[in-house]
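question for whoever is on the cluster today: can someone run the full assembly for these? two chains, 799 residues total. i dont have access anymore since they changed the login thing
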Amino acid sequence: MATKKTKSSIRPLRPGSGWTYAPAPESAAIARIDEQYELFIDGKWQKPSGGSYFDSINPANEKKLYRAALANEKDVEKAVTAARKAFDKYWKKMPPAERGKYIFRVARLMQEQARELSIMETLDGGKPIRESRDFDVPMACNHFFYYAGWADKLEYAFPNRTPKPIGVAAQITPWNFPLLMAAWKIAPALATGNTIVLKPAETTSLTTLKLASIIQEADLPPGVVNIITGAGNTGAALVRHPGINKIAFTGSTAVGKLIQQETASSNKKLTLELGGKAANIIFSDAPIDQAVEGVVNGIFFNQGHVCCAGSRVYVQESIAPIFLQKLKDRMATLLVGDPMDKNTDIGAINSAEQLEKINYYIRLGKKEGSLHYENTATLPKKGFYCRPTLFTKVAQSSRLAQEEIFGPVLAILTFRTEDEVIEKANNTPYGLSAGVWTDKGSRIFNMSKRLKAGVVWANSYNLFDPTSPFGGYKESGYGREGGLHGLSPYVTF
Amino acid sequence: MKKIPPAVFKPSMLAGPAIDQTGVEERTARFTKRSIKAVSKMQGLLLTLRMIDLTTLEGKDSVGKVEQLCYKALHLHDAFEGLPTVAAICVYPSHVRTAKKALQGSSVKVASVATAFPSGQSHLSIKLADTRFAVEEGADEIDMVISRGKFLEGEFAYVFDEIASVKAACGAARLKVILETGELGSLDDVRKASQLAIAAGADFIKTSTGKIQPAATLPVTLVMLETIRDHYYKTGTMIGMKPAGGISTSKLALHYLVMLNETLGADWMDPHWFRFGASSLANNVLMQIAKEREGCYQSANYFSVD
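^ ran it for u. tokens below:
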């Protein structure tokens, strides 16, 4: 046995540097992307009445990918009318088991075209192909399968009551999980007998448009699902439309508040799934190597563009140094770059605007005096990229610890006692999710009871399942999506 | 300066972090998602060959069989030029002399199992005699088994002393300590046994004898690699790792190398610090190398079985 070396003389590990993985690109040619997409209204592809289109680029190389129709108020009117007609004429009268068959058919068609959907999602949004292939697309299919099963069993979901559909649902989805969020919204709405006008985010319309063509292929009655594309104005027109009975929005807290104001004087039902600044809490008795992995998945999954991202890590002081060392060594192995490469862990930031916002916070963190560390990856010259980044010595009162960054930037804080960490974790306007890492079962129960968060993950993070409800407290929104709970916002009695 | 390992067991040697099996499995699944292509695949295949402990551990092993295996160790597939040799031959003590002679002048090591392999159910004096015999016959490396029964009884001091005295009997030979993880039952115990072995002077820790199922698995190996990493963080001393049993395809071997690369990194990507205990892996790797070279798979009949 060698003599014991002093800690400072120990050569640092070189994780990940013993072997360079050759490029393993997925083939972009598999995705058949049209040059131009129209609006999907009343079961047909229709030109926008204003005649305008907008470009969508691939954030990985800034090249134009396709152009999509810009829907204006007239188009919104058309879509809502089509949805109303479909509701009255077909969908609310259809036997529930028949509705279920249509949803099953959509799920199967999605599954058959899973590879193409994954590639489209990655090209349009910048997320690694590994994630769209292994998470986004299969999970989206599962949501359709799951809610298809509920269609003819609603009386068991609401025993001794008679659930009825609400009518026309307006759904607005974000750019971080375009297809998955569309599935979260469309599947329960259809299962409960509602018709839909959905607007995806303007930077990532592609997979939702592809879903529209799948819905067409599944031969759903015209107007049951309408997809209109556009930016904020289109969304605002949709929200304001008097023919809407229910609004489901996923996106920023700022826009969520506007929608809430807008609908305050109406009787539109509303669910909001907004921002977050989740605490991921590591106790000294935690399975530390797995906790490091959970922290990495918590913040670097989808470039940190996740509303429930574990962006604040609270680590108990006694294990903070070793935890940090392990986290840095793990971060060194993260591969940043071409999202189409099967080995890429961190792909492209969704847009130039979002990259600027993230960089603003990184500059701010440095200015606030926090210690900055980032992985040493060489970034591609074209495209929007950000290295996985962490800050230590972050104060609870700093903006880095308080505001949602929505990027691969982690703030690390320490704590000493259980009461202290609960107080700090709850000290945020948000309340979407939290993580607890400990070997002690009783502590998990105590923590999950006292943390004000919609989801509390124990010894895991960012795990999802169609059977499990998801949603927030406080400024993270209200209403639940997923599971049995996800049916409630779409029924009336 | 050589320091003799501490002669006494201390309970603190067992103190380590909790292990969450689900988390370990999630992490290892992630390693298998790495797509190893082209140049990096060839590098991985060649490194795998260099890391193999070509093994025969059967009651019917004969001088002839061992001699043939040694020839194979030196000449993996002469039809291809520039192939490396394996790291070592692994045999029972009674065949060490034969192997040593057959491998004379080469860099291929002779490893011998010892200590009443594979069960370890014998008296310590016999295990030590077994070890000394193998070393005297010329073994460069000793693969010992721990007393799993004693470990599960909680007799950690016994197991510690056993390893320390076998280490002393090894002299200059490197000691690989087989934990037989398939009999330990939990990843927490794998962690504990790994720490105990390292504290008692193991140069290598090894998963399995190959006689018990399950043998090496990715999760078990990850827990052992993380124990080695923690030891390195603390002391700066490198410990070797040898998964053995059940690794028979090159694809799986490449997954192990990805795990090694991303857990311990560049310094361990060398036969001095990592071995595969395997009997049929070499031919599978050779077939993959042939495919990379010629563009198509060849029949198994083109590769010698021994």
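summary bc i know u wont read the tokens: Chain B has a mean pLDDT of 96. The CA atoms of residues 140 and 272 of chain B lie 12 Å apart.
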